[in-house]
Amino acid sequence: VLIAGKGPENEQIYHNRVIHHNDEEVVKYILTGR
């Protein structure tokens, strides 16, 4: 799992990863990494 950098573009990329890949680790990172 890649770690999202700070910034709206990277957040959008990782939101897209969640939507398309259903990656639970990315979900956890997004929810806890803010």
Q: Give the overall shape, derived from the CA principal axes.
A: flat
Question: How big a fraction of the residues is strand?
Answer: under 5%
Separation of termini? 17 Å
**Average pLDDT taken over every residue:** 68
GO molecular function: acid-amino acid ligase activity
InterPro entries: Mur_ligase_C_dom_sf (IPR036615)
Word description of this protein:
With 34 residues, this protein is mainly alpha-helical. Helix 1 packs antiparallel against helix 2. It is flat, with a radius of gyration of 8 Å.
Labels describing this entry:
2 helices; 34 residues; mainly alpha; acid-amino acid ligase activity; flat; 68% helix; Mur_ligase_C_dom_sf
Short summary:
This protein is mostly helical.
SSE diagram, text form:
Elements: H1 8-21, H2 24-32
Helix pairs in contact: 1-2
